[in-house]
Amino acid sequence: MNLPDCVRTYLDQQQLPYRLIPRPAGETLIQAAERLDISLHEIARVVLLQDAAGLVMAILPGNHILDFSMLYQALKRDLEPLYGDETAYFFQQHGCVAGSHPPLPEAFGILALVDDSLVENSDREIYFDGGSGDSLIGMRNADFRRLLTRSRWVRIAIAVDQLDFLMSRQALTPKNLTNLTNRYAPVHLRQGIEAIADLPAMPVIAQRILAMSRADPPVGVADIIPLLEQEPNLAAHVVYWARSPLHGYHDPVDSLETAIGQVLGIEHTLSLLLGSSMGQAFRIPVDGPIGLHEFWRHSVYCASLVSELAKEMAKPTTVKPELAYLCGLLHDFGFLVLGHVFPARFFLLNRFLAANHNLSFSTVERYILGVEHWHIGAWLMRTWGLPEELISALRWHHSEDCTQPHAEYSNLVLIANRLLGSIGMGEERNNYLPALALFSLGISREQALGTLARVRASMAALDILADALRLPAATVETSPPEPQASPTTPQGSR
Asked: Are 143 and 153 in contact, with CB atoms under 8 Å apart?
């Protein structure tokens, strides 16, 4: 347990007693608190922020959510959180291991704000990251306060268990959404909530694709290709997806006829086209935990996993593979709606998520918006007349005990999200595979993990498809290059 030089030197200079607590490599602060039976309120965590004037360190209890309106009131500065790579780089420059963030601003030469609730209980110790990745530092409450005497102590965070959530069963009406959002959103962001009543219309191209998927008699390859010749970006998406190793097609995919007729099939092609064309109706920021880049990356991986999981289901089954794929691709569609209709509020939501990554997405969504993305997504799908299976998947994909009609689709998405969460992708913080959902689908844990292994082996191809889906139509090539064979390591979460 060798502390970084800057941390040890600073602690020694302060001449305050502390103790080192062994910590397994890779263990998070939340996991350490659980193992040691420590309240998260006694864990000091760090958020780095910046503006044109420089860096600021925010220090708060592990069970609190950083409030940017409080931050602004305290400093009169519009601070932005640093994202994961930037934060890691800052601490690594000072000798700390990746992912280890000691709350010692003076050791790093930056200003700090400390939430004053951190030392409310003077009888308890405060625990924080030592910077070496293999230890926690324990210190008496009063000594921790002395350690940060030059920092500004002010209320900048709110305890998660104090948040008053009223969203559970209320009807989806603009009035209810307005009332709930106004409880939490800063005043300057409340204007325009009524615009939720004016949901975007389904794109014309998506309407044509939806009509094709419902045609009787069914359409053929010859019916789809003329449509794709008018939409080169959608044609590129089809070829990208057909080239994925998941399909087991080893010959070159050099034409739409091959991609549709020999690899994907009509129904699967239409599902992909429907999902990608619907996404073109929305414009949201590219960066951030729920920006366009992470949205499509997570969606493509989830759709691929759902498709693979559906193959493992006990037979006979009523699940339609192509519809299951569409459910995985669009299950988080509510994020696109929120970002498109409420750009300022969506920007704030991204800021909170970046700064409070240890909290669940639903917690932050309710605090900032008063509504969760699955409510909005399901509402839009129903407004657009999409299949009930898709609406069910959007509405219930976070529920472990869903007994609603078409629950098999939401269960498939739930399992896929948990699997992706285990490798650091997506908004799912709970990585435990839901036993009831697995049992109801006739899928074993080993089978589920096997699907994850297959999808991870196709990461290069899936990343190419995700990049294509998020790009404007004019920037997507009609003849995409073959993806690289070697998989890449997944980047962190949306």
From this structure: no
Q: Report CA torsion sign: 148, 68, 185, 425.
A: negative
Quote the crossing angle between the two packed helices 232-242 and 266-279, to the nearest 10°: 130
pLDDT of residue 148: 94
Please say whether the beta carbons of 455 and 461 come within 8 A.
no
Contact 403, 433 (CB under 8 A): no
- The H or E element that residue 58 is part of is strand 54-61
Name beta bridge partners: 154.
Answer: 115
Q: What angle do CA 3, 112, 124 make, to 5 degrees?
A: 65
Domain boundaries, the chain: 5-162, 177-475
Residue 451: the pLDDT is 96
Q: Give the residue ranges of the chain where pLDDT is below 50.
A: 164-174, 177-178, 180-195, 473-494
Residues 6+ apart with CB under 8 A from 169: none
State in words which class domain 5-162 has.
alpha beta
At 348 the pLDDT is: 67
Using a 10 angstrom Cβ sphere, with 0-12 exposed, 13-18 middle and 19 or more buried, the burial of residue 334 is: buried
Residue with tokens 């399992």: 415
Architecture of domain 177-475: Orthogonal Bundle (1.10)
CA angle 281, 282, 288 (to 5 degrees): 155
